[in-house]
Amino acid sequence: MPPAGLQDELLDELLDQIPALAGRPRTVEELSGGLTNRNVKVTTPAGSFVARCSASNADALEIDREAEHQNSRAAEEAGVGAPVIDYRPDLGVLVIGFLEGRTLSRESFNDAGVIERVAASCRQLHDGPRFRGTFDMFERQQGYLRTVQTMGFRLPAGYLDHAATFTRIQGALSVRAEGTVPCNNDLLAENFVDDGRKVWLIDYEYSGNNDAAFELGNIWGECRLDSDQLEMLVTAYYGRPSRSKLARARLQGIVGQYGWTLWGSIQDAVSPLDVDFWEWAMERFDLAMSQIGGSDFEDLLLDVQLTD
Questions:
Q1: SS in 3 state form for 276-306?
Q2: For a surface tag, which of 17, 55, 109, 284 has the fewest beta carbons within 10 Å of its beta carbon?
Q3: pLDDT tens digits for 205-218?
Q4: What's the pLDDT band for 238 if we cut at 50, 70, 90?
Q5: CA neighbor of 220 nearest in space, from 252, 261, 194
Q6: Cα(69)–Cα(169) distance, rounded to whole angstroms?
Q7: Most distant CA pair in the chain: distance in Å?
Q8: Which region, left, alpha or beta, applies to residue 104 given φ > 0 means left and ψ of -120 to 50 means alpha?
């Protein structure tokens, strides 16, 4: 059932079917965000929880709800994910513990210590238990493109003109492939919760084992870090400056923005939410194009092959 169309009385009936949320008195508070879910904070005498009510367009977006559940548990085990309380695939609901802290914004990355805490939490996740499934944006982009073209959804003008460049990036990254680690793969600013001591990572819809540099590059793209901030993130993550790692994160960030453009194209056509997904898609496409057309793009393709 689409979360955007879930009426309050139906939501109340749904919550009554989940033991952890069925207590009385109970308060329910809508949470912002959630482009593919309806997320609500539920407070009962037993504590506060978040119910993630799934949308019906998961297939088009290649979301694996079983993997989301299992990987959320692995992130909890790694020490950076919220506790998983219950999972009801029959109801389309994942229940996690509510994390106290500040939800980050893009501007938060200007605050002292935030980038270092983000890097430490990413490292902790990546050092944790392996995830179910893999996430490779080169494969995901091809799947999204098939959906867009088969369904006749609109594409940004000139999108397909850069297919060869996308392949060049893939080739450069493969020269010194570094294996995969468990990654969230969707760390936009709102998926960080900062309690002042550590940053928690939430929302594992797109999680899977992936190149660690994709995680860092995706943070750069989604959180709109400048070049100095990305260098700080890469240095904090690896414990030292690295020209090749920085190039790898930049290139993976471009890959992410180019691929997520198609996610926005699909959502523009199928989502019931009152969100301008076309503008969302174009924002990512424009960033990818600005990087591909940048004066240092060819240098990035060479630097990523270095052994520093």
A1: CHHHHHHHHHHHHHHHHCCCCHHHHHHHCCC
A2: 17
A3: 999 999 999 999 99
A4: very high
A5: 252
A6: 32
A7: 61
A8: beta
Provide the total of helices (H) and of strands (E) in the chain, helices listed first: 10, 10
Could you check whether the bond before residue 45 is cis, i.e. omega within 30 degrees of 0? no
Which of helix, strand or coil describes residue 200? strand
Q: What stretch of H or E contains 52?
A: strand 47-54
Place of tokens 């990987």: 71
Q: Using CB atoms within 10 A of its CB, is residue 226 exposed (0-12), middle (13-18) or buried (19+)?
A: exposed
User: Quick check: 242 and 283 in contact, CB under 8 A?
Assistant: no
Residues 6+ apart with CB under 8 A from 86: 18, 19, 20, 93, 94, 95
Chain segment 262-301, per-residue pLDDT in tens: 999 999 999 888 899 999 999 999 999 999 999 999 999 9
- Model-wide pTM > 0.70: yes
3 state SS of 117: helix
Amino acid (1-letter code) at residue 278: W
* Phi, psi for 250 (deg, rounded to 5): -60, -50
| Nearest Cα residue to 35 out of 253, 257, 190, 201 | 190
